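Morning!

This is the sequence you dropped in the shared folder:
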Amino acid sequence: MAQGSLPDFPALEARHLGEVKFVPGPIDTPAQIRELTAGADGLVVGFHPLDEPRLAALDASVKVIGRTGVGLDAIDLDAAERHGIAVVHQPSYATAEVATHAVAMLLALQRRLLPADAAVRSGWGTIADIGRIWNLEGASIGVLGCGRIGRAVIERMLPFAGEVRVFDPLVNEDVPGVRVVADLDELLSDIDALTLHLPLAEQTRHVIGRSEIRRMRPGSILINVSRGGLIDEEELALALADGHLGGAGLDVFDQEPLPDSSPLRSAPNLLLSPHVAWYSDAALSRLGEWTVADVVSYAIAGSVRHGRLAVDPVGPRVAGNA
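The structure's back. Tokens below.
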């Protein structure tokens, strides 16, 4: 089993698991992939890009790629399908963690905890130093995307907000306690906060751009713990700078690590975290164990137990859900 450079997942610390042998190594170039995967049944990867040239370099023995995470935008799924290689990812390993992170960011921004903390550290401060805090109990919270994580966010927000509304083009059924709307325009109209829970694809890139941001209520909050490419970051920085948005919380970015030149670095009322919404000690353990177990299971029996097959040479492709 070939393994690209990964964090120290507990399940991967042992290099042998029964009859399964793990061989770690770099996979930055097709030549490195060819060398690492010689005779391997599967490949375990993190955020490594796997485009057509890299997938073509996989040894003919490779049956499956295990992605340690949810997002699949770094893997050319069409190329994997052409080469007859299964791709398994883990949409549910950190649902609770990501949803909690999104809500924590939203509440911290709504309660203006960043300026409140700064006020105390600089002497003490007054309400004027903290800024306007709108009433959460009378607020309308928008959720864009109603997959596992979107629904977990909804469950967490219902006790706090006056209204939770959701839009997802793939969801038509009622969601208990929630107003399901017909389109993005209706979702954005007069909302106090918006949280994003979509996969990144061609049709979702910059789904939140200038017109969408300006349609949101002045002083509202934008949260993204899904994929950085969902938001036009330049327009977000402008909306924070001119005060149209009251705050934003980002765990993900178009380019990671966030470049020094990014306008987000100087934007006000912006709460940042370094793509760690997924993390807890339990989630880290699950991710390693589930990915390894699914790669081994598919290599041996052609099936997976924990994750989802985004590409299965003997079955239909299933799109990921954030």
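Headline: The mean pLDDT is 92.

More detail when I'm at my desk.
O.
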